[in-house]
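Sync notes, pocket subgroup
Present: LS, DG
LS reminded everyone that the earlier model was apo-only. Rerun requested with zinc ion included. Inputs:
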Amino acid sequence: MKKLRVLATVLFVLATACATVKTVSLSDKQLKANLKKHISTLASDQFEGRETGTKGEQLAADYIVTQFKEIGLKPKGEKEFIQNFPFTEGANIGKGTQLYVNANSYKVNQDFYPLQSSSSGIVTGYIARVGYGIYAPFLRHNDYDGKTNLTKKIFVIESSYPESKGAHNKFSDYDLRQRVEFAKMRGATAVIFINSDTTADNPESDFIHRFTQTTIPVIFAKGDAAKLLKEGVVTNCTVGVDIQKIEKKGHNIIGCLNNNANTTVVIGAHYDHLGYGGEGSLYSGEPAIHHGADDNASGTAALIELARALKASSDKKNNYLFIALSGEEKGLLGSDYFVKHPTIDMKAVNYMINIDMVGRLKSGDEVLNINGIGTSPAWITAFDTSVINHVKIKTTISGVGPSDQTSFYLDSIPALQFSSGIMSGYHTTEDTENKINYDGEVSIVRIIMRAIDRLNNSGKIAFQKTDNAEVMPKLKVPTKGKRQN
Ligand SMILES: [Zn+2]
């Protein structure tokens, strides 16, 4: 048995070694020049950091479509190569936003403002004053102690903390969202925060709500309105919040190489980045272009070159679908939309390869991260060694990680992410083209080709669920529910 297997392996390696030579149509020098052209273009000032839903994203999309056409891919979007997906980014405060206390009407932004977690809605009723709204039996603090008849009331809550605010405030876990959720449990139909502590900051007024909302109106009241709500006689109160969501569109670019095969390999890379900063940026200066050369012009360039290589390849046992994904930085939006609105038969998808940040291989100590190796037993065939052409292979098991392979894994598709890792300057204005290691990226493109090549004869590979505790360190999947008021 053992000997046979060794022989089989030798034959297999020989066969694939020959295939590798045949499939690589570009010299390293040509490949390097192409990668440089793509990254220099996508990460240039003109593309303004390619934020989803902006002009920069559109320019990048046009560039990628041109490349896909030139290579000879067939359009596989909804409108030619393009698949639009809607997303909500922030909101405006609508006309229905109001606050009445007794007969007094108050002005939005001047006397009060909705908080980020508020839902839309209008509520009229009596108020109930519940101190800080904190129930903390551990800390022997309960603002609800002795309070009855709270059902269907509008709760008035102090936004500060029982003890002065500081790094070691023992109540700091009781943020406003938490207090709102507890108020709801106690019967609140709306919450009005006030702040009587002059040493404490008022809650943020910047009205975006890209994260999970609660189900009741939540506002912050100041000045006379706050005074009346704190200690006046209040006979009735009306709170209304009218959220006008700002709807935008992102664009996936999808092209296919049809080999009349039964199975399709999906290769993806996100081309969007952070624009001028904003959410997700780790840069703290004035708004400035985040070029995103490594993240992820590098992966987009690799995607384009893999399309070219696979077009020329003799690996014809799969069809190939190339997707330049958008909305990744805003929370894997493009890949999530694609798996829910696929333009191909998802049952025929063999596996997915996601390329995210492959431009910063460390010279001298080349380490390539391959995340998601547990998503199929077949990956062992593809990466049977820990070093490929001087590049050390470092794998993680989990199918859930901080990039688009996650969306495919969650759709029960074997999925990997290739990455040279998180570099200095990640998600800042420092991620620029001059820092790209092009020789390193050439090696990575070759390693991905080698893997695809090795799986050419494997048929449809098996999906395997992973223990999802393991994710790449430092990076997080952008979440929609983590920010606080
Ligand atoms: Zn990123």
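DG: The first helix runs from residue 2 to 23.
LS: The chain has two domains: 24-89+248-454, 95-241.
Action: DG to write up.
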